[in-house]
Amino acid sequence: MIKLGYKASAEQFGPRELLDYAVLAEGAGLDSVWISDHFQPWRHTGGHAPYSLGWLGALGARTTRITIGTSVLTPTFRHHPSIVAQAFGTLGCLFEGRVVLGIGTGESLNEVPSSGMHWPEQKERTARFREAIKLIKTLWAEERVSFEGQFYRTEVATIYDRPQQPVPIYIAAAGPFIAKLAGMEGDGFICTSGKKRELYRETLLPNVQLGLETSGRASDPGFDRMIEMKVSFDEDRDKALQDTRYWAALALTPDEKMNVEDPLEMEKLSDALPVERAASRWIVSADPEEVVERVGEYVALGFNHLVFHAPGPDQARFLKAFSSRVAPLLRKKFG
């Protein structure tokens, strides 16, 4: 059975407006709401970056049913892993059974400006990430933890408030090694749509499965394969196309945006792209059947949790149209 979620665009909306949209998503019948944990947005002009952990507390208090989580948070630089363990222990107690910790290795755009740190190479970021996961799990399982790692230390540390069942950890990956780690160490896997099909079919999902097999969970029915679906759906197709301009940075190649840590500079690079390229990562459509068909390609690959990210400024308009015209077709076709 598929699950349908809503990506709360923290880079595009302030905390109150974003909270109202997320509450609308629950009212529209969606199953989950996810927020990124960015210190800075992709754009300076009109950009936002509300603090995800405070925002999730407000969301949990204003909703009753939906799963809520980060997609994703970096538990290695701005956030020390022990503080992540404490924060999600508290959220898990407040909203038991509804909270997920989604984590990734991070981006310099968020970590460098907030700390002035030197952004390390991928090898170190991965090593820190693995150690952070180990420390978070240890703090959730044990008391008076004295941890001596390569990067992190604790001294007789205890997380006093934590739910009976640990908060699930979902791991985001864009390459084979972290994808395997998601299967080995995670309760779920996160990635984003709009890339070459071979990446999902030949690299990401097979390595997730290899990780599950390595951890003895080859057929775990509870493991979530989640993908952020970038969908610009509107009755006016040209409006749907133009809406993608705000998120043009997503179309930049890794080389084009490497080491860009200033939202003003990222904005300039994005605004230079033609609208056709800005829309290249998105399913742009005014036809519900077309959306279902194109989303179905990802379901066929094995994704069961589809989290919809809409680029337009009127998210209420999108939620109304999506929940009435697209979501019923998706649930009917895919369970």
Describe this protein with a few key phrases.
335 residues; alpha/beta; two-stranded antiparallel ribbon; 13 helices; globular
Please outline the helices and strands.
Elements: E1 3-8, H1 15-27, E2 32-35, H2 52-62, E3 67-70, H3 81-94, E4 99-103, H4 108-115, H5 122-141, E5 145-148, E6 153-157, E7 169-172, H6 176-185, E8 188-192, H7 197-214, E9 224-233, H8 237-243, H9 254-257, H10 263-271, H11 275-278, E10 283-285, H12 288-301, E11 305-309, H13 315-334
Parallel strand pairs: 1-2, 1-11, 2-3, 3-4, 4-7, 7-8, 8-9, 9-10, 9-11
Antiparallel strand pairs: 5-6
Order of helices and strands: EHEHEHEHHEEEHEHEHHHHEHEH
Helix content: 40-55%
Beta content: 15-25%
Radius of gyration: 19 Å
Distance between the termini: 5 Å
The shape, in one word, is: globular
Low-confidence stretches: none
The count of strands amounts to: 11
Structure notes:
The longest helix has 20 residues, at 122-141. It is built from 13 helices and eleven strands. The protein has an eight-stranded parallel beta barrel, surrounded by seven helices. Strands 5-6 form a two-stranded antiparallel sheet. It is an alpha/beta fold and 335 residues long. Strand 7 (169-172), helix 6 and strand 8 (188-192) form a beta-alpha-beta unit.
